[in-house]
Amino acid sequence: MPTLRRLVPAIAAAALLAAAGCASEPVAPPPQPSYAGPARQLITVIADSPTATSATLTAWDRDGSRWTAAIGPLRADIGAQGVGPASETANRSPAGIWSLTEAFGIAADNGTRLPYRRVTQSDWWVSDVRSPYYNTHYTCAPGTCPFDESAGEDLGAAGPAYDHAVVIDYNRAPVVPGAGSAYFLHVGDGSATAGCVAVPGSDLDRLMRWLDPERGPVIDIAVRQAFTG
């Protein structure tokens, strides 16, 4: 979803950095998860309506059949068009449950246990629907890439939003051209995204240090009514 996110470098860096260091606003208590899959770590991102541009984010640990809140609830920013079916032409956060298997950032590793890639301006996330590399990471110097660079994100040039980020594994296995690309949990500035989930930098650091790949973490993005049944 590069169209809206490409605006990030144009936002005042001072405002982004201030947001990165602040704590989230208090939010209402989250509903208890109904997730019954194999994951033992779960992040819920619950919007009050399908068109809401913010949501309640909570990180949960499971012990047996019991879920306990480990971090949050926190305020998170989500897609400018809310939550629901995602695509390359919609600024919407993808509803569903997706694994969290890797992380990246312009800044140094913040202590996450996820595999971490430090990115430069030769690191891209491909959003060219005609490319065989669609919705994957690719390394190439600007001007030399084997895809339409205007339909991709230069991760290292994105500014503080990508100081740290976790990849949301939407549309990755299998990859469906046009179904949407480049969905991340990243540093927020308090405004809606093109489909990503964004929180202040200090909150993201806590979440990334908490995530444990041995516990199979997933993220559940949903509207409250559907989440609670």
UniProtKB/TrEMBL annotation:
<feature type="signal peptide">
    <location>
        <begin position="1"/>
        <end position="23"/>
    </location>
</feature>
<keyword id="KW-0732">Signal</keyword>
<dbReference type="InterPro" id="IPR005490">
    <property type="entry name" value="LD_TPept_cat_dom"/>
</dbReference>
<dbReference type="Pfam" id="PF03734">
    <property type="entry name" value="YkuD"/>
</dbReference>
<feature type="domain" description="L,D-TPase catalytic">
    <location>
        <begin position="56"/>
        <end position="214"/>
    </location>
</feature>
<dbReference type="GO" id="GO:0016740">
    <property type="term" value="F:transferase activity"/>
</dbReference>
<protein>
    <recommendedName>
        <fullName>L,D-TPase catalytic domain-containing protein</fullName>
    </recommendedName>
</protein>
